[in-house]
């Protein structure tokens, strides 16, 4: 007989090597009520079942086990998601919901929107939490129209607004202090006039979100992932999304988990490689060398500093040209020319290194080398580089290497930590893959 004593043994069978054994384990598990399992056991069952390599086992979980658990809550998605503590397993929750949606008719899907407080293409902030955000994202991704299938497009139009207002929605959610500053002062109601705070039936969700709320990082990630369902044909919307990503990356509150999503999103919305790298470099500069308050309201840069920056730019362009010439010379097998280019390249890089060492820091900026800032900056570079869209070094990357990567690797007085060191080496090795000369310089033994 199955009881709590033998249940632990049954759960281990979900990872058995035989498909039939795993299927039978899920059959036995389905006889139990969801409340009879601990939270960790519920999460384990869903993670193993939805990710099972056997279609037979996976289909049983999707078609029998999960619907039975949902029925226990009278098909209330919110209570179901809360019961499995979806905030701990958001990706599993996403997969779970999409599996359930495939078994439902469009009319039923549409009726679920109001049950999860999705009204007028948004969820009011008081109701926005991980459970509702995961459901919202799952619904948006599931009903998103494609070239092959657009039969649920009418539902998609009820789920998400245009990109520009959605970016504003995310901004006001994560930066509520900005939204409160923009709220206009309410006028006193005159005799015979309705109070502005009095809402008619059905108009509650049309009012502004003025209730104070605490932003949640997991909710933010779900909202950002939802931005990927847009086709980005709207120029204004794409510009709003880019600015939102930049502002979030520059925020002190954003964690590394969100940085990964933001960098990926930034790569998605900026197709041009040069523009993407320039935006990345600007973000890193603002994070690592934030502008300090100055006595003068207008700062006029020193002429010598501008000349030095121009000289650096010229040197980096020459290095790029020599790299191209080196590739051509190697293809032609011109050994004499290769040696000449190596000497010239080494000389230019040495000159650039000296300029970076002795040139004064820009007034009003202070270099920030604390571990959290370094990890954020390095994570941005790693996520942008690993997309595979960058195929060669350019002046922006050379400058980033000389002014940020190498100095970070050479930090001795401060202890940035092993994570920072590992990230720095990962970025440097990526650069060396793009430029063989860098590999010879830094990894030649």
TrEMBL record:
<keyword id="KW-0175">Coiled coil</keyword>
<dbReference type="GO" id="GO:0007076">
    <property type="term" value="P:mitotic chromosome condensation"/>
</dbReference>
<protein>
    <recommendedName>
        <fullName>Nuclear condensin complex subunit 3 C-terminal domain-containing protein</fullName>
    </recommendedName>
</protein>
<feature type="coiled-coil region">
    <location>
        <begin position="305"/>
        <end position="332"/>
    </location>
</feature>
<dbReference type="GO" id="GO:0000793">
    <property type="term" value="C:condensed chromosome"/>
</dbReference>
<dbReference type="GO" id="GO:0005737">
    <property type="term" value="C:cytoplasm"/>
</dbReference>
<feature type="region of interest" description="Disordered">
    <location>
        <begin position="180"/>
        <end position="214"/>
    </location>
</feature>
<dbReference type="GO" id="GO:0000796">
    <property type="term" value="C:condensin complex"/>
</dbReference>
<dbReference type="InterPro" id="IPR027165">
    <property type="entry name" value="CND3"/>
</dbReference>
